[in-house]
Amino acid sequence: MALLFLAGLVAVPSILLAVERLNFKPGFNLFNPTQDVAFGQEAAAEVDNQFPLLNDPPVVRYVNDLGHRLESFAPNNNPRYVWQFKVVNSSDINAFALPGGFIYVNRGALEAAEDEAQIAGVMAHESGHVVMRHGTNQASKALPLELVGALLSGLAGESGGLTSQIFNRLGGFGIGCWMLHNSREAEQQADEVGTYILYHAGYDPHGMAQFFEIIQKKYPQRTLEFFSDHPVPENRIKDVGAEIPLLGPAKSWTTDRPEFDAVKKHLLALPPPPKAKAAPHAAASPVAPPPAPSNTMIPYNGQGFAIRYPDNWQAKSTDGAVALFPAGGFVSGSGGDESQAYGAFISHYQPQGPTGWGLVDATQQMLDSWRESNPNLRVVKQSGMSVQGRPCLLTEVENDSPLEGQKETDRVLTLRQSDSLLALIFVAPRASFDAYQPTFAAMVRSLQVQ
Description:
Layout: H1 2-21, H2 33-50, H3 57-71, E1 84-88, E2 95-98, E3 102-106, H4 107-112, H5 116-131, H6 134-142, H7 145-152, H8 160-169, H9 175-178, H10 184-201, H11 207-218, H12 223-227, H13 236-247, H14 258-269, E4 297-301, E5 305-310, E6 313-318, E7 321-326, E8 330-332, E9 338-340, E10 343-349, H15 359-373, E11 378-387, E12 390-400, E13 407-417, E14 420-429, H16 433-446, E15 448-449
Parallel strand pairs: 1-3
Antiparallel strand pairs: 2-3, 4-5, 5-15, 6-7, 7-10, 8-9, 10-14, 11-12, 12-13, 13-14
Helix pairs in contact: 3-5, 5-10, 5-11, 10-13
């Protein structure tokens, strides 16, 4: 007993030291945890009313059991947090947290995860947003100066009137107030806290980074749906790997359990999710097509490649991948996520199997992985070509457009880059594709690969 007691004394300082090194301290905040819960409760009531929830007992029980196990290891946890875990019946790959411990996981995220450590990583990341108090941190920064003065002088107190008074001034209290896009710094903190939680809960702490990799490789056109709400910190996977040794020695970590496999199999056998209405914070789909691409091209330097694109387009990168698109090129989908309807998406795919893979087989493997999440994807034709002297494969694909009732044409250019496949995906509604073809051709001609 004495030895166990001494071992406990040794372990506690090491955990505290890890927390101190990783700076698990919430930032500037004018509110207290009780107010976090009050704000979260009001927003959660709105979410429950406007989002399609999956009320399937086995799935809900599993997610709650896993969520409570994870939050028990969260640093800066507060006994006032309510910790409720719910499943949104949407195929979109997403998850989000509201202040005070209200966490929502999309059905699509559960189905996309390949083992329990990965979905645990998603939930641990969202728990990180709660305990780092990112929601009320953002709200504190957004408050008008006169209301800040009222709070600091104690005039507002902690009454229910505080909630309505503050968020009336912020432009309306509701889901949108808490579902603002987190900064890269907040996402990095949530990654760090999530890794800490996974380690101490006994899960492989690499699981969270593995999940992000899976989305990017297997669901490339849905990558921006997730990362539009979860901006990617630079060197995310490298940073997670660097954090793990700070937490303690390697363990016999849990990667998967039969419970996860049973729930995933059960989910896949359920009727498909309903077509959900757009979330209140999402931008409305454009009623008119985007402006025509500019003839003036500007450079983009990516991970091992460079390309030029129209100067009236935007660039949004996601950990090695990039979306290049015009204003209005992303449209709102079910569950409030956005999908790319116009422009280009460039990413890397790591073929499975021997290192001596061929271009045709690797491209087919990539297309097959896309079809897992989009069974309506259909290859129209395929031909060989070369770009800057490199052999390439050009594949034309027909797909469902995120624009309601329309089909889209995708031109997929693939080439070998070191030990991975570089894929350039050019996207437009079928009726508009010919108008974009000259721009896409100019982008291909400008491509430089290291």
